[in-house]
Amino acid sequence: MAKKKRFGKKPGAPPGTLVFTGEKKVDYPYVTRDFYNENDYTHESLKGKELPNDFEGGTTWLDVRGLSDIGLIEQIGKKFDIHPLILEDVLNTNHRPKYEEYEEGIFLVLQSLTATRDKNFQVQSEQVSIFLKDNVVITFQEKEEDVFESIRERLNNAKGRIRTSGPNYLAYALLDNIIDNYFIVLDHLDLELEDLEMEILNDASNTTKSKIYQLKQELLYLRKYISPLRETTAKFLRSDHRLVPEFMKIYLNDVYDHVIQILDMVENQRDLLNGLYDLFLSEISFRMNSVMQVLTVISTIFIPLGFFAGVYGMNFHYIPELNFKYGYFIFWICIISLAAALLYVFKRKKWL
């Protein structure tokens, strides 16, 4: 499971104090600018360059990867008139998903989730913040890897209506891209649960119990960031903000439906994991019962045999069969016959 992140600013600090609370994942922030309209699209790196001043004639998408440079975040905040509380939330990378409206724009906080299945199933998260205002969308990513590479491809290839619909549609596309990746994570978890079920049925062990516990932790981690998405997307859908035009509602409603579907999948996987734990306990109990059954059968057979052996092993001088010529052989015939009869009875009753 991903490491826990430090919580926010120091107690008593004034609102809007900028403190980076996450792990430094990029040595130097990487800033890109995508500018597009119906006919043109340009992508450029702003490393060592000034922030753009021209926002007319199309939509500007400013993407910041790496949040440890507080000076850069402050510069962007002043340039685009972003409220200090928004900048504070951008740098506090321990936020749950949320939606907020301001006079100058709309602010979204999301967690981009990925999963690996190398040795153990592990969920990794990255906070992504989206700020939407007139003609401008600004995104803040923790890592250098680009979460929105597929969106840039759509812009470059002019696929769909993204080049003709303005910044609000771009914000929707970014939100939808993050939520679509949740399905991939949950598909990986489904495969992990299938493998775990086969392992329990074939060779349950203490290692299996550890895997169940680890998957429970990962599922709790998933629910932590997926559960608030319902309220987040619902607020976006019901918004009457000037940056959420009516034509956007059908697309936002589709995102909301995806979120409901994801929540249902998470709950189903939670129930399935609990069922697998019960199956694990049942399998362990069944194997224990099988062992005890074999030991009980062996004990049941040897108890009467031991009784006869004990009787004829007593040191009384006058035992009727003591001097019988074939007494030893008859003793063994009786013992073997008794054992065979008990085995036959157990087999008939399907105890073996």
Question: How would you explain this protein's 3D organization?
Answer:
This protein has 352 residues and is of the alpha+beta class. It has two domains: 30-283, Beta Polymerase, domain 2, CATH 3.30.460.20; 286-348, Magnesium transport protein CorA, transmembrane region (Methane Monooxygenase Hydroxylase, Chain G, domain 1, Up-down Bundle), CATH 1.20.58. It contains eight helices and seven strands; from the N terminus they run βββααββββαααααα. Strands 2-1-3-7-6-5-4 form a seven-stranded mixed β-sheet, with helices on both faces. The model has no long low-confidence stretch (mean pLDDT 87).
What overall form do the CA principal axes indicate?
rod-shaped
Specify the CATH class of the largest domain: Alpha Beta
Strand order of the largest sheet: 2-1-3-7-6-5-4
Mean pLDDT: 87
Strand elements, count? 7
Q: What does the main sheet amount to? A: 7 strands, mixed
End-to-end span in angstroms?
A: 46 Å
* Helical residue percent band: 40-55%
The CATH architecture of the largest domain can be named as 2-Layer Sandwich
